[in-house]
Design a protein that fits this description.
Length: 437
């Protein structure tokens, strides 16, 4: 029986490993659709961002209530998963609570901590479900948060509740079995699951073993399934938020990326450089029309987006009723990347499918509504920069399609000729000071 369980466990582990690996490779090749970008600047600063923003959740605490409950889930995720190591060893070698004899009293402390976190995660998930579905917090009700994004968020919260219940059920039945069956090593008293013990007290040993095994299998298969599911979900942020905070821009928020080809040419026209403007054999694209025109960092950010909507809830364009939602910009980028990646994987046309990020996912109306204020960048808890993508799309429309609104075009022309947005001759710019003595 134990050997059959070991074989079954190895098969389940192998199948899960196969699909998780396949999905990780797909995500990695999707990100590689983007343009390579060096990670420059001080590495220490980047590590500090990872530790404070991703690991320490610093920016989350601007909104205390969700931050507190999110922290419980996050801590639970990090710490309870240590127990998975024991599950895996037990599954492979047919042991039961392999660490208990070695850790003695500390094992009991550890299990009680895990149980405390399991209850905390359970409560936090219930609170989040209520906030989304009963209180209907505004930022979760926007147009982009219907269908799959809403189902995804609810599914993951429900799965976590069920997984935590499985841990508590397993521990409750396990404690009862410790007095009836030698295979069940002593864990000492486990505080939270003890409250569930009366529900199982009257059952015979075989039924208890069945329930304990069922809860064990449910939990480990659930964890493996959850890991695979996460790669299809916004919950990928639990891994990629760390990567994103490492590669995020270190420049001040107002910094806009220049195009070296253009800035060299302008500098040379203004006599600010002696370098001759670089002439490219194949002129690159100005701005971005599709995901391959964005950088790999932009694409990592799209996968790291938690769909929390903090950016959209601070966006002045969105708040004044415009169609723009920076969260949707990130979700669209990820969806388009997934679409292209899927097409390439089945030998389809990939990027040549007649669609593009600009037009088929994100409209000009959306990008033109952006005031470049950086409020979304400031609000994002994982250092995502939706503005960078918006500016690249807008750059494409202006420079490749000459499709910027007419008023913008005359402003561009004024800047070119008068060095100001207004139609003054450069020599007239200081007329206002003429009468000053
Ligand atoms: S930069 Fe644009 S998208 Fe971001 S908050 Fe400001 S207006 Fe909204
Ligand atoms: S970009 Fe940042 S703030 Fe906006 S939804 Fe994604 S994670 Fe939240």
């Amino acid at each position: 029986m134990v050997i059959a369980q070991q074989i079954l466990f190895l098969v389940v582990l192998g199948i899960a490993g196969f699909f998780i690996r396949k999905r990780v490779l797909r995500i990695s090749s999707n990100i590689k659709l983007g343009k390579e970008q060096k990670v420059s600047g001080p590495t220490l600063e980047r590590i500090k961002n990872v530790l404070l923003v991703a690991f320490g959740q610093r920016k989350m605490f601007k909104r205390l209530i969700p931050a507190f409950f999110h922290f419980l889930i996050y801590a639970g995720f990090l710490i309870i998963n240590l127990e998975v190591l024991e599950f895996v060893i037990d599954g492979i070698f047919g042991t039961h609570r392999v660490f208990a004899p070695y850790l003695g009293g500390f094992y009991n402390v550890l299990m009680n901590v895990f149980e405390f976190l399991a209850v905390a995660v359970l409560l936090a998930c219930v609170v989040f479900l209520v906030r989304r579905n009963v209180l209907k917090i505004e930022r979760f009700q926007s147009a982009e948060m219907t269908q799959w994004p809403r189902l995804d968020a609810n599914l993951i919260l429900t799965i976590e509740i069920v997984l935590m219940m499985a841990i508590l059920t397993m521990n409750a039945t396990d404690q009862l079995l410790q007095t009836r069956n030698d295979h069940y090593v002593s864990t000492g008293s486990l505080f939270f699951s003890s409250y569930l013990m009366p529900a199982f007290q009257g059952l015979n040993t075989e039924t208890l073993v069945f329930i304990e095994r069922f809860a064990w299998w449910f939990h480990i298969v659930g964890i493996l399934g959850f890991t695979l599911y996460v790669t299809y979900s916004k919950h990928l942020h639990i891994f990629l938020a760390f990567v994103n905070t490492f590669v995020a821009k270190l420049e001040p928020k107002g910094h806009i990326n220049n195009m070296p080809v253009v800035s060299n040419e302008v500098k040379s026209m203004l006599g600010l450089t002696t370098e001759a403007p670089t002439v490219q054999a194949t002129p690159g694209r100005f701005g971005a029309k599709d995901v391959n025109d964005l950088t790999q960092h932009n694409l990592i950010a799209a996968y790291a987006c938690t769909e929390c909507g903090r950016c959209t809830s601070e966006c002045p364009a969105n708040l004044t009723g415009k169609k723009l939602s920076p969260r949707k910009i990130m979700m669209d980028t990820r969806d388009r990347m997934e679409e292209v990646g899927k097409s390439i994987a089945i030998g389809g046309p990939g990027l040549q499918d007649g669609k593009a990020l600009l037009g088929d996912y994100i409209t000009k109306e959306e990008i033109n509504a952006c005031t470049s204020c950086n409020a979304c960048v400031e609000a994002c808890p994982v250092l995502i920069n939706p503005l960078e993508i918006i500016l690249e799309l807008r750059r494409y429309v202006s420079m490749e399609e000459s499709g910027a609104p007419a008023q913008w075009n005359s402003m561009f022309q004024n800047i070119e000729t008068s060095f100001a947005p207004w139609k003054f001759s450069p020599s007239d710019r200081f007329n206002w000071a003429k009468d000053e003595k």
